[in-house]
Each structure stands twice: as structure tokens, then as C-alpha cells.
Amino acid sequence: MGAIRIDRTNGTATFVNMDIYSQAVVANANEGETTLQCEKADGSGSDSINIVRFNTTDPAGDGVVWPYMMKAAYIKIAVDPVEYGYPILGTLDPGSYEEYIKYDVSKIGDNVISTALSGSTSLENVWSERTALSNAITDKGQGDTLISTFESDFSDLETERDTEIKDCDSETGAGNTYNGPCGTVEPLDGGLNSEGCRECLNSYFNTQVSTLSEILGDLSWHHQYIFASEGGPS
To answer: What 8-state DSSP symbol labels residue 80?
Structure first.
């Protein structure tokens, strides 16, 4: 039987039978769970298999901190993916962070899925995930506040940049210059143009985002081999 083995936090293991599927992919991933979309071999449809990352509470009762460590890390990656060796997978803003979680999950997951679909009976075909974590998060409440603060400040920077670009565009013309937060944009080819505005202001914006991102801490990468006993796969 081709299967994926999922080791659980309660010491058990779940085996997902892949014999009934012709293909499967990592469809979605976030800090809470990974979803596999599996197409049935008989053409009758597809199934979604959800692999839950963490139990919802810890023994101390304070809530699990790891999802917040993950979210902070991947938001930092999403606003500057090249800095961390990732391709650009979406818009360079916090809202695209799940694309980078999916990217890391797929690095290992695609191989595990392929092995299972090939009919491997190996008990070593274990599901694991590559996960980035931020060291700036110390507990659930602090993590939630820090992430919200970053997202709000990032949005303010975007608004400032877009407003300044419009102001600069309105000044285009022969002999004009633009003075703004990024400095002075001198006339090009006889007049101020929107290309010069955008280059200056985008450079300023990127510098500001880099500085802002420091509140999200340093990142490290880990492999998660054990998944929540509750909730999945379903």
C-alpha cells in the first residue's frame, strides 16, 4: 500500500492510503494546517486531506506560541523574499505570507507525496515540513500584538508611498523637481517624470520596510516531524 505516515503528538501514527489517488498536491498551507488536494484514480472526484500543525492549547494554558512564530517569520519573508533566498511568489506585502509557507511545505511534501503515489510501502515515508520561525515572539498575546503592529505600520508606509508618487506625478514637467521623503528627484530629459518618482520613492519604501521588519526578529528554519493529535487528517 502506498501511504503517507503522519506521526502524532500523542505517540501514535496515522497512515493516509494513497492507493486510491492518481495525483496529489500541496494545495494550501498556513501556520495552522496544510491541505493536500488528492484526485481519485477512478475519476470520481477529489479529497482534501488536512494535516494540522499544532494542538490548540499547551499544558500551561497560554495557547500555542509556534503559529505566531511562524506567521511573523513568513510575513518577514513575504515583504522581502529575495533577502531570504525565496522566489517572489506574490505581491510584496504581509498578505502573501501563506504562499511562502506553501513553498517550504512543498519542498519536502512533493517528494513524500510522489513516493506514496508510486506505491511505496516504506514506513519511513513520513510527512515532515520545513518551517521558518521568528525569535521575536515569546507568547500568544505578544505575538498577536507584534504582528498586528507590523501589518498596520506596513500599510501606513504603503499609503505614504502611493500618496507621494501621486504628488510627484502631478509635478512632472520641464524644469520641475520633486522634494519628498526620499529626497530630491531632479528633472530627467528636460523634465521631471514619473519613472524617476517611482524609483526614488520605491527605494525609500524598501528601506523603511527593511527597518520596520527588524521588529519581527531573527529567523531560523526547522523541520517539523510531529503533528497535532487532534483535528487531522480529515
So the answer is: S
Which tens digits make up the pLDDT trace of 114-141?
A: 999 998 766 779 999 999 999 999 888 8
- Claim to verify: residue 162 and residue 179 sit in the same structural domain: yes
- pLDDT per residue over 193-214, tens digit each? 567 777 778 888 989 999 999 9
Domain that holds residue 42: 3-136+217-227
Asked if 79 and 168 sit in the same domain, the reply is: no
Q: Are strands 183-185 and 226-227 parallel, antiparallel or unpaired?
A: unpaired
For residue 117, the surrounding DSSP H or E stretch is helix 97-117
How many C-beta atoms surround the C-beta of residue 202 within 10 A? 13
- Does residue 74 fall inside a structural domain? yes
Residues 82 and 193 in one domain: no
Distances in whole angstroms, Cα of residue 168 to Cα of each of 125, 155, 171, 189, 193: 57, 20, 5, 16, 8
Residues 67, 102: one domain?
A: yes
C-alpha cell at 50: 488536512
- 143-190 pLDDT tens trace: 999 999 999 999 999 998 888 877 777 765 555 666 777 777 665 554
- The reply to whether 94 and 198 lie within a common domain is no
Q: Supply the pTM of this predicted model.
A: 0.87
Residue 126 maps to a domain: yes
